Amino acid sequence: MARVVGFEMSSQDPEKAVQFYSTVFGWETGDPNWGFWPIKSAGLVELQGGISKGPHDYPHGTRIQIEVDSIDDTITRAVDNGAMIVREKMEFDEFYLAYLVDPTGVGFGLVERK
Questions:
Q1: Nearest alpha carbon to residue 75 among 64, 86, 62
Q2: What distances in angstroms separate CA 53 from CA 1, 8, 30, 74, 106, one per listed residue?
Q3: Which of 22, 29, 39, 94 could be stapled to 49 by a disulfide with Cβ–Cβ 3.0 to 4.6 Å?
């Protein structure tokens, strides 16, 4: 079963957004990596997340990230059911990541750990 494992907040001024959320909500952020400021979560549910400069295809907003066993199979099923690929599968050190939009226009990320 797929589960929500994180979130990504896009902003055209990520440093200002980091300062805002740190001040207002007390969120702790880590040092930026690839222009992505990780957020250290606390509480009953631990989610990984962060703030980055939003790309042209998603300049502002929040996307959840869903961990799946096979990103390729999930992309195929999603497209077969009306989703659109925004960013093809990308490879990072420890995971693969892709961005899609569901048939209603809601954006989300898919994560497959290596």
A1: 86
A2: 31, 10, 15, 26, 19
A3: 39
Q: Give me the CATH number covering residue 97.
A: 3.10.180.10
Compute the half-sphere exposure of residue 114: CA atoms within 13 Å on the CB side of its CA.
8
**Is 102 a residue whose pLDDT tops 70?**
yes
Give the C-alpha separation, 111 to 99, whole Å: 9
Residues 6+ apart with CB under 8 A from 97: 65, 71, 87, 89, 90, 109, 110, 111
pLDDT in tens, 2-13: 888 999 999 999
Domain that holds residue 11: 3-113
Q: What is the pTM of this model?
A: 0.81
pLDDT at 92: 94
Q: What share of the chain is helix, strand, coil (3-state, %, to 5)?
A: 20, 45, 35
